[in-house]
């Protein structure tokens, strides 16, 4: 229950942080650079809380926490391999495969934490970090829409398609957090609280498609190809590990021994 509360609060905060320009009546809400930097700490606390509460509730054990730590570190390390390359970001394929095996909610926590770890390793801490953490968490969370009973080539193919879709989604989200600041105040693409939601959405989408596709397309290709090539072996290995430590993507009820 506590894990769910932390999960829902974190996501609610992320929705407000990203979509404040479109929230009509409170569109005068603004996230300053300092506030956005501080928000990363809050996101990390929520992500750690999700894991901690599952552990205390008996839904995970120490071995499961160790696996979460290892996968988070691996995802963060893969992000470093793509640093500086336009759209070539190999971290996404492993995040998607991990979320597929261990569940969307745990994947959300790992996505957020892996972004934080890689940022600290590279000195990439800034007002963009909290948004990267939310967006990575949502990429993992979206894996939950894929039916759990799929297996084999069909499963990998759908994961590859989702990998391409989520690559464009990540670009869409990251441009959304940049747009109010990067487009300035006086251009035809700038955010304006005096305009209606539809006009601001139009300005944002114009800004996004004019600037982002050179990053989104390589990211989508890289993610999909890596899932197709490495997905079967990685999913199989992760499922074996998941079975040994008795962690499932579904919430478990702890069964007390009969007396």
Describe this structure in words.
The protein has 259 residues and is mainly alpha-helical. The protein has one domain: Arp2/3 complex 21 kDa subunit ARPC3, CATH 1.10.1760. Helices cover 71% and strands 0% of the residues. The chain contains nine helices and no strands. The longest helix is centred in the last third of the chain and has 32 residues. It is globular and about 60 Å long. The chain starts with a helix and ends in a 15-residue tail after the last helix.
Could you name the ranges where pLDDT drops below 50 across 5 or more consecutive residues?
A: 247-259
* CATH class group: Mainly Alpha
Any idea how many domains?
1
Structural Rg? 19 Å
Q: What does the largest sheet look like?
A: none
Mean of all residue-level pLDDT scores: 76
Count every beta strand, where a strand is a DSSP E run of 2 or more residues.
0
- Give the overall shape: globular
- CATH fold naming: Arp2/3 complex 21 kDa subunit ARPC3
Strand-residue proportion: under 5%
What's the N-to-C terminus distance?
Answer: 26 Å
Structural class: mainly alpha
The proportion of residues forming helix, as a percent range, comes to: over 70%
Instruction: Identify the CATH architecture.
Output: Orthogonal Bundle
Count of helical stretches: 9
H/E element order = HHHHHHHHH
Write the layout of secondary structure elements.
Elements: H1 2-19, H2 33-56, H3 62-81, H4 91-102, H5 104-122, H6 129-142, H7 152-182, H8 197-211, H9 213-244
Task: List the defining traits of the structure above.
mainly alpha; 0% strand; 259 residues; globular
């Amino acid at each position: 229950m506590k894990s769910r509360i932390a999960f829902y609060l974190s996501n609610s905060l992320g929705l407000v942080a990203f979509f404040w320009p479109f929230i009509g009546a409170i569109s005068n809400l603004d996230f300053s650079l300092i506030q956005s930097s501080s928000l990363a700490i809050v996101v990390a606390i929520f992500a750690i809380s999700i894991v901690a509460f599952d552990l205390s509730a008996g839904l995970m054990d120490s071995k499961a926490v160790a696996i979460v730590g290892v996968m988070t570190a691996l995802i963060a390390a893969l992000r470093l391999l793509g640093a500086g390359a336009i759209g070539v970001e190999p971290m996404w394929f492993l995040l998607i495969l991990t979320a597929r095996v261990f569940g969307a909610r745990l994947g959300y926590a790992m996505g957020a934490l892996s972004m934080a770890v890689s940022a600290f390793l590279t000195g990439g801490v800034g007002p963009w970090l909290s948004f990267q953490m939310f967006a990575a968490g949502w990429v993992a969370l979206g894996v939950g829409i894929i039916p759990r009973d799929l297996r084999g080539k069909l499963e990998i193919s759908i994961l590859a398609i989702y990998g391409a879709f989520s690559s464009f989604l990540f670009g869409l989200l990251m441009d959304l957090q940049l747009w109010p600041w990067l487009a300035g105040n006086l251009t035809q693409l700038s955010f304006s609280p005096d305009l209606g939601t539809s006009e601001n959405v139009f300005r944002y989408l114009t800004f996004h498609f004019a600037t982002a596709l050179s990053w989104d397309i390589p990211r989508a290709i890289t993610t999909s190809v890596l899932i197709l090539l490495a997905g079967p072996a990685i999913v199989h290995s992760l499922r074996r590990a998941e079975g040994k430590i008795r962690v499932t993507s579904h919430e478990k009820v702890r069964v007390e021994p009969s007396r």
